[in-house]
Amino acid sequence: MKKYFLVASAVLATSFTALAGTLSTKGIPTSAGVIFHLDLEAVEKSKISQVADSEESRGKIKKSIARLFGRASADAPENADISSIGSIADITVAVTTPENGALDPNYVIAPDIVIVRGNFNLEKFDNFAKSRHAATTSVIKNRTFYKLQGRLPWGNPFASFATLIDANTILFAADEAATTAALATLTGNAKSYTAPTPLLSYGRNIGAPFAFFYLNGKILPKQRTDSSAKQMTPLPPNPAHVFLVLGEKAGDIKLRLSATYPTASDQQSVQAFMQMGLAMIQGRIANTNDSDGNPDPKKVKRSARLKSLLDAIKITTSEPNYVSLAFDYSSEKIIQFAKEASAANNP
User: Fold this and answer.
1) Is residue 46 part of a domain?
2) How far apart are CA 309 and CA 330, in angstroms?
3) End position of a domain, from candidates 162, 186, 210
4) At which of 169, 186, 203 does a domain end?
């Protein structure tokens, strides 16, 4: 049965440009049900980027983006690299909502529009696309698109139509319908998606946001109600909307996650579910003894680090039927924790 990969874990993308806490949705159709954006330039400027080797991280990002084009053909130049077409600033992935609203329970959500922004060279873009295995061309709305057999950055197959819209924008779309919709918004011939107010507000409050995520609950499959589903542990109800923003401000990493629910009862149920999950994790890390029942110094230290992080998580509710999670923590301390953990795992 046809399966699609959930974009929530997903990639990088750019029809948003995050500037001083604002969010532009040019190029995203109004039918978008899921949007994920990552501002690579903002990540590079952040303190938290010091957790990973920046050169190594940039290399991994380049390889992830190159997957969208597919593998190189046998006669492709050995030095063909995604960086040869220009510099990448940010990326946005969008999933459009099915015409009938929610997806079938046997399906999961797949991205159908990916927009990569930066500074690109048309000739080098053409040469790179032509060097990909099985690349062919197709004309849509008087534009030449490369039909690519690529993969999403996390590895799942992603056949797409790709073109350079202008010197700053590359469009990948899963089919002709998605291509036409994205083109219309990018060229100003159709209205672009309006970013939800909470998403913009969180971005402004964080100061230097580098990741945005939005999900419209209408796109989620309805929860099963058959007898086998009733035998499983009850899950929280589907949200009406989910908003997430991650960034840095005044030396602190900041995460804001918020979801709205149809009723106050749903709100209370989800809050209890989240608090129970947090309590379970806190209970597990509290056990710092070794197999003989004696305190294990490594476990004690690790438990203290994790407890400090978990204590920074605040779960609250507000009107109308919001459940929110806030996390604020020193970027320097997270970097320190990461280095200590790495040293402990690689003595």
Assistant:
1) yes
2) 10
3) 186
4) 186
- Residue appearing with tokens 């969010």: 23
- Residue 206 covered by a domain: no
- With 0-12 / 13-18 / 19 or more C-beta atoms within 10 angstroms meaning exposed / middle / buried, residue 116 is buried
> Which pLDDT tens digit goes with each residue over 148-192?
988 877 777 888 899 999 999 999 999 888 899 899 999 888 988
For residue 252, give Cα distances in angstroms to 37, 78, 198, 258. 20, 42, 21, 19
171 lies in which domain range?
A: 7-186
Answer yes or no: is 196 within a domain. no
User: Is residue 59 domain-shared with residue 172, that is, in the same domain?
Assistant: yes
Report pLDDT for 132.
85
Give the C-alpha separation, 37 to 47, whole Å: 19
Per the model's pLDDT, the better-predicted residue between 306 and 227 turns out to be 306
In a domain, 212, yes or no: no
Q: Per this entry, what is the length of the chain?
A: 347
What would the mean pLDDT of 19-45 be, rounded to a whole number? 76
Predicted confidence (pLDDT) at residue 247 exceeds the cutoff of 60:
yes
> How many contiguous H segments (helices) and E segments (strands) does the chain have?
9, 14
For the stretch 133-143, what's the b/e string if a residue is b when 16 or more beta carbons lie within 10 angstroms of its beta carbon?
Answer: eebeeeeeeee
Q: Are 138 and 99 in contact (CB under 8 A)?
A: no
Domain count of the fold of the chain = 2
Q: What is the mean pLDDT of the chain?
A: 79
Judgement on whether residues 264 and 331 belong to the same structural domain of the protein: yes
User: Which pTM does this prediction carry?
Assistant: 0.81
pLDDT of residue 292: 82
Q: Is the pLDDT of residue 243 over 80?
A: yes
